Amino acid sequence: MATRNRMPPWHEHFKAPSGRELLIRPIRPEDGPPLQGAFALFGPEEVRDKFLQSVEALSDETAQRLTHPNPKTEIALVAAEPLPPGEAVVGAVARASIIPGTRDAEYAILVSRFLAGQGLGRQLMRKLVKWARGKYLDRLYGDIAEQNEPMLQLAASLGFKQVPHPSGTPGLVRMVLELAS
């Protein structure tokens, strides 16, 4: 009788065109210290584009919140070396969270400059869309800096539409994917 080599839910081996092998998987509490240690691998542009300000380090509080998502309303995935959580260097983080009282979820993706342009952001975004569809949400959206052209193009290529940011914040746009259609 043949045994099937099945991965746990939300786990996937990812081989980048560069040859680098990563494991995409749900974030674990043990990922906090390596994530904080690897934060320097994310370039200032990536961090500024995601946090909309210069951030030198990932605070203990932010790492704690990120590594303990509420499974009913959030998903957080990492792309890391195929080593045990707590030992693996984390090269990318993707998160989606349902906005309380709505059928919408907000996403954010942060990919290390060493892994940019390898298709990892696209694969992580597909997983976030799959999660949002599985939660029967109406829309998934992300706020992106106007100058973050790669992320804007990626979102558009997956069907997201650019809309003015509701707050009117200069330099910020919202990319929205209508899930019901």
UniProtKB/TrEMBL annotation:
Residue ranges of every copy of the N-acetyltransferase domain listed in the record: 22-180
Superkingdom: Bacteria
Pfam families for the chain: Acetyltransf_1
Residue ranges of coiled coil: none
Keyword S-adenosyl-L-methionine: no
GO molecular function: acyltransferase activity, transferring groups other than amino-acyl groups
Keyword list, A-Z: Acyltransferase, Transferase
Signal peptide limits: none
Protein name, as recorded: Acyl-CoA synthetase
Organism: Stenotrophomonas humi
Lineage: Bacteria, Pseudomonadati, Pseudomonadota, Gammaproteobacteria, Lysobacterales
